[in-house]
Design a protein that fits this description.
By secondary structure, the protein is α+β, with helices and mostly antiparallel strands. The protein is built from 2 helices and 5 strands; from the N terminus they run αβββββα.
Length: 86
């Protein structure tokens, strides 16, 4: 939602950013794996024991993220990442 003091270009960027966060949806693909797929890449979370490991994979970029003790923390970390997309 835009605030009155923000110009139209910034407003459009903000709305696009909000739409991005709603675009990727988590899918539970197997017993210990979750993924969210976008147009340019995907986030993958796998569980090893009690630890959740997240990573981002695309054609030109891939990286692992720090482990988390809760699935919700791993998902939030991915959703807050700049590569989260439509």
């Amino acid at each position: 939602m835009c605030v009155a003091h923000i110009d139209a270009a910034d407003c459009a960027k903000e709305e696009k950013s909000m739409k991005k966060k709603k675009g990727m949806k988590w899918e539970h693909t197997s017993n210990r794996v979750w993924r969210a797929i976008g147009e340019n890449g995907s986030f993958l979370i796998s569980q090893t024991g009690t630890t959740f490991w997240a990573q981002y994979i695309s054609r030109g970029k891939s990286f692992k993220m720090p482990p988390k003790q809760k699935l919700s923390e791993a998902k939030s970390m991915c959703e807050d990442n700049e590569y989260w997309e439509d």
